[in-house]
Amino acid sequence: MRTPAAVFVALLVFATPALAQSKTKPLPPSPPAAAATPETDNSKVDLAYGAFQRGFYLTALAEATKRAQKNDPQAMTLLGEIYAQGLGVGRDDAKAVEWFKLAASHGDRDAMFALAVFNLEGRGVPRNPQEGAKLLADAAKLGHPVAAYDLGVLYLNGTQFPKDVTRAAQLFQQAADAGNVQAQYALANLYKEGRGVPKDQKKAMQLMQAAAIAGHLDAMVEFAIAQFNGNGTPKNESAAAALLLKAAQRGNVVAQDRLSRILMAGRGMPADPTEAVKWHIIAKAGGDNDPDLDAFAAKQSQKVRDTAEKAARLWLSTATPRH
After folding, report:
1. CB under 8 Å to 29, separation ≥6 — which residues?
2. Using an 8 Å Cβ cutoff, are 125 and 100 in contact?
3. Does residue 126 lie within any of the structural domains?
4. How many domains does the chain have?
5. SS3 of 46-69
6. Using DSSP, how many helices (H) and how many strands (E) does the chain show?
7. Residues with Cβ < 8 Å from 38, sequence gap 6 or more?
8. Would residue 222 count as lying in a domain?
9. Residue 78 belongs to some domain of the structure
10. Can you say how many angstroms the Cα of residue 119 is from the centroid of all Cα atoms in its chain?
11. Residue 217: which of 252, 189, 242 has the closest Cα?
12. Cα separation of 186 and 128, whole Å?
């Protein structure tokens, strides 16, 4: 028995995922280790940074030490990172802080950001959120995109500073312009909601698309839903379905649910009851609850249900979702 087409259409008017709609949920901080890695400057770090990139950490340590003795701030930051991560040497937060402080005193923005993280976490130094926030601001002024994003989060949540969504939006814009994916996603949500910036669905979806292209999982799902519905971006059900498939394969439960509905209705990709039921089972295993898909699955033949369940079990046992 087939569900009437009109019901399919109603089911496929997708809503934005609940997580993305939250106006109070704090945005996650940036991973400090990756962001603190110094930028390449062949005229200064060259051999040291090249060795670091290839995993030759003792060589990087020796070369960076030579450079640091010549007051090279990027080499100092590299030394701080080596000790902070314990790469080729024992992890030593105290030494890392010494090198980061020295590099920061020479104006290195990566060192400022690393010190900010250490102060915010109480790592290598007593926890000092005020100093951490100040260092984030210093690094952001020098154009560090992750520092600008993290500082924006502090303003957005009213942490260390009075809550100021407009200032948060400005900092997210700075970071987004530099290609920071988290900032693109955060700013997209502010434009979507009209918080700190004028409400602008088209601008929101431009930023959401940029973050989606860069692989931001939540952005992929939100942009796909907007694209399916033609909300703020040209309607393209096929492209939306393809993007939802990618997000579903990465373990996003909302994407898995929406993909199941697409496969049920045959919009954006051919109808496939077995695949629809498979993704519904996978989404349910992730905590999704969709009575309409429960009803659809119950109407399928025993062969379809058995095949779908077997495929879902195999996917769940072997999947290694990427976030």
Report:
1. 150, 153
2. no
3. yes
4. 1
5. HHHHHHHHHCCHHHHHHHHHHHHC
6. 19, 0
7. 45, 49, 74, 77, 78, 81, 108, 110
8. no
9. yes
10. 23
11. 252
12. 26
> CA 201, CA 204: separation in Å to the nearest integer?
5
> Mind listing the pLDDT tens digit of every residue in the chain (323 residues)?
333 332 222 333 334 333 233 332 333 333 333 334 444 444 444 799 999 999 999 999 999 999 999 999 999 999 999 999 999 999 999 999 999 999 999 999 999 999 999 999 999 999 999 999 999 999 999 999 999 999 999 999 998 889 999 999 999 999 999 999 999 999 999 999 999 999 999 999 999 999 999 999 999 999 999 999 999 999 999 999 999 999 999 999 999 999 999 999 999 999 999 999 999 999 999 999 999 999 999 999 999 999 999 999 999 999 765 55
Q: What is the CATH number of the domain that holds 78?
A: 1.25.40.10
Q: Tell me the residue range of the domain where 76 lies.
A: 31-142
Tallying the residues shown for the chain, one arrives at 323
Amino acid at 147: A
